[in-house]
Amino acid sequence: MKLPIVAYGDPVLKRKAVDIDPEYPNLDGLIQDMFETMHNARGVGLAAPQVGLSIRLFVVDASPFDDEDDDPILKTFKKTFINPQIIEESGEPWGFNEGCLSIPDIREDVYRKPKIKIQYLDDKFQEHIEEYDGVAARIIQHEYDHIEGKLFTDYLTPLRRARLKSKLDSITRGQIKVDYKMKFPSLRRK
Ligand code: ZN
């Protein structure tokens, strides 16, 4: 089932999400729905707050990065991350043009460290500690920010953000064209 994606401006996107346990209701169904929602919107990552749930869960599928130039690891990089903790980030920050399904039609260069070490549970609640770099690390860092209540727009300079303000306001008000289902905060009271 495709779930509506929460738009920029919804307070759930600014909240720090909480850990879950294996008893979380219908977790398998939720994970399946999140993959379906992400694929339908042609995203490479989706975090639970983006479907309105403030829990530490995100899914990634980087297979759309299938250029010859891309890192071959991306083709098979499809995973569920539960209760993740980034243990370490290292290296010289590099810029990458990021977008977000909650912030359609806006892309901005964001600087992050290239290497991460992350501890997480998979969809069977098995623990893993893994290291990632490049675009795979970047996708994880972006989704991880979502469960920490952070958006890529938080990294922009005040000037850049001021220039984007009216565009961001239009997203919050639902005055945008988008070809997947979204939920807009200011329309909720109706
Ligand atoms: Zn995002």
Features:
globular; binds zinc ion; five-stranded antiparallel β-sheet; single chain; two-stranded parallel ribbon; alpha+beta; 23% helix; 3 helices; Peptide Deformylase; 190 residues; 29% strand
Task: Give the SSE layout.
Blueprint lengths: L4 E2 L20 H14 L4 E3 L9 E5 L16 E13 L3 E7 L2 E10 L2 E7 L5 E7 H14 L10 H16 L8 E2 L7
Parallel strand pairs: 1-9
Antiparallel strand pairs: 2-3, 3-4, 4-7, 5-6, 7-8
The protein binds zinc ion.
Q: What does this 3D model show about the protein?
A:
The strands form 3 sheets. The protein has a 5-stranded antiparallel sheet with strand order 2-3-4-7-8, sandwiched between helices. A two-stranded parallel ribbon has the order 1-9. It has a single domain, classed as Peptide Deformylase. Helices cover 23% and strands 29% of the residues. The chain contains 3 helices and 9 strands; from the N terminus they run βαβββββββααβ. The longest helix is centred in the C-terminal third of the chain and has 16 residues, at 158-173. The mean pLDDT is 94. With 190 residues, the protein is an alpha+beta fold. Strand 5 and strand 6 (103-112) form a beta hairpin. It has helices at residues 27-40, 134-147, 158-173; strands at residues 5-6, 45-47, 57-61, 78-90, 94-100, 103-112, 115-121, 127-133, 182-183. Bound molecules: zinc ion. Zinc ion binds next to helix 2.
